[in-house]
Hints:
Layout: H1 5-15, E1 19-24, H2 29-34, H3 47-53, H4 58-64, H5 71-85, H6 89-102, H7 112-121, H8 127-135, E2 138-143, E3 156-158, E4 160-161, H9 169-173, H10 186-202, E5 207-211, H11 220-231, H12 243-258, E6 262-266, H13 282-287, E7 293-296, H14 303-312, E8 316-319, H15 323-326, H16 328-341, E9 347-348, H17 359-381, H18 387-405
Helix pairs in contact: 1-17, 1-18, 4-5, 6-17, 10-12, 11-12, 14-16, 16-17
Amino acid sequence: MKMNDIEKRLYHELENLEIIDAHEHLGPESARIAAEVDVFTFFAHYTRGDLLVAGMPEDVYKKLFDRSVPLDERWRLFAPYWEQIRYGSYAKAALIAAKRFYDVEDINENTYIPLTEKIQKANTPGIYERVLRDACKIRTALTQCGSTDLGGTPLLTPVMPLIYSMETGTDLMQPKFAPDAKINSLDDFLDAMKAYVMRVKKEGAVGLKMMSNPYQSPSKDAASTAFNDIKTGNQKTLPLPNPLRDYVVDEVIRFAAEQHMVICVHTGYWGDFRMLDPTHMIPILQRHPKARFDIYHLGYPWMREAIMLGKGFPNVWLNLCWTHIISQKFVQIAVDELIDLIPVNKVIGFGGDYGLPVEKVYGHLVMARQDFARVFARRIADGDLTENQALAILKNWLWDNPKELYDLRLQ
Length: 411
Ligand SMILES: [Zn+2]
């Protein structure tokens, strides 16, 4: 991004700012080091969606990660589709990361082999420190990988699922979150969920994640009927949504809030995104005024609906995780409107939202810094803000707000 002088100064200040990364899917570093990696590790995540939409068949996508197929053959399969997706935001994070960590200006026919060799050579203990701490200045990253066992590093702080599937007999009688629990009734199931919340809290989890699916008003009677229908075999599978889920989600939110756990909510963007409208959350926000909700992704494409949750409900924080790699244009508009609409203590500025390709957290962060530099510099040039005020707001968004919301005691 070409920058003017004010943008350059802000960008430079942001490079030196220690931050909290408010959402990732990083597993323990040992899992990354044990993984076979190559150029396609950089295309293991969101770029999958772009490749499939560009026309890559699913079996070809799978083959990219079949290390028994020679690298050059996999590159030949990949190259035509790469040309279709290389200008998108997901690709940009990969290109920035390849340049920063592996000194590769572009990912192409001439560089995929040296890039693979460099990725493999760097896949050693300390890679999280080198990427997250040294390059990104991240003190800790809140991460959701389905486990609280993250190798004991203060660089990672776990967030766990709020809800597991509860649509079949196995889901209810041997739930994944408590396989040994003795469950005969809805109350037993709820007790097992509460025990799970207490356990993961003790293990260091600071939040529980749910989705902004449609939920009906909770009814214990309707939930018991649904539970018993499955238990007795009257019904094999509950449809979605269903009264059991409506009730259990509500009860777990209440209990988790009493335990001072943050409720993290994925909104918008994914598959049939009609099921993820952020406004589905309104009745839940109203029923749980004391719970604290971290609303993710600005509900793309319902950005203004998501912002209005932050405008109208004191129990809502707005988290820009994932947003800068959805579209920088969209998020720059959003950041401008957030400054107009939302108190500075209620926005959380960054979450990389990556799993295996940890290097792309840096790529995403560069894009976030660009977005903040562009929008805040324009405000400064217009005379609406001083540079010091802009930097104070950004420190709120990237450090103070996630630290306070999640009550992080950072070492
Ligand atoms: Zn995520």
